[in-house]
Amino acid sequence: MNIAFPASPGRQTQGPKPMIRLALAALAGAFIGLAAVPALAQSKATEVSITVKANKFEPAETEVPANVPVIIRIKNLDPKPMEFESKELRFEKIIPGGGEATINVRAQKPGRYEFFDEFREETTRGALIFK
Ligand SMILES: [Cu+2]
């Protein structure tokens, strides 16, 4: 029932409404962003550096705290590409020879979580031990 606003075909003012809606959405986004900051600060990620040389991870095993996200900085020192992968930690990344990458891993319960180079799965294996 649109009784209060009779249609006036000649003057269809669009008005600033869409802009206001956009601005509100941006504001809401800003507030969500702010709210997320304390949560991030709470669960500080642990950083680990792992290299690959002559088809071996170094270190092959690394202990990290459980229930905290982990940032893996992986460097491929070999001249050929690798596919750094973990089914348990759910990541997969191709890293060119001589290249490096950063992998973000979610917080995990205590346990041993394996990773490998999928191009050389038999020889190139390692694990993160969440404790
Ligand atoms: Cu793969």
Sum this structure up briefly.
The chain is an alpha+beta fold and 131 residues long. The protein is built from 1 helix and 9 strands. It has 2 domains: 15-44; 46-130, Cupredoxins -  blue copper proteins (Immunoglobulin-like), CATH 2.60.40.420.
Q: Could you characterize what this model shows?
A:
The protein is α+β, with helices and mostly antiparallel strands and 131 residues long. It folds into two domains: 15-44; 46-130, Immunoglobulin-like (Sandwich), CATH 2.60.40.420. The chain contains one helix and nine strands, in the order H-E-E-E-E-E-E-E-E-E. A hairpin with a 4-residue loop joins strand 5 (82-86) and strand 6 (91-95). The model is unreliable at 32-38 (pLDDT under 50). The structure holds copper (II) ion (CU). Copper (II) ion binds at residues 83, 85, 92, 118. Residues 83, 85, 92, 118 line the site of copper (II) ion.
Q: Which term fits the overall shape? A: globular
Quote the beta fraction.
35-45%
Radius of gyration: 25 Å
Mean pLDDT value: 83
Please supply descriptive tags for the structure shown above.
globular, 131 residues, alpha+beta, binds copper (II) ion, 4-stranded mixed beta sheet
Q: What is the secondary structure topology, with strand pairs?
A:
Blueprint (H helix, E strand, L loop, with lengths): L16 H26 L3 E8 L2 E3 L2 E4 L5 E7 L5 E5 L4 E5 L4 E6 L5 E7 L7 E6 L1
Parallel strand pairs: 1-4, 3-9
Antiparallel strand pairs: 1-2, 4-7, 5-6, 5-8, 8-9
The chain binds copper (II) ion (CU).
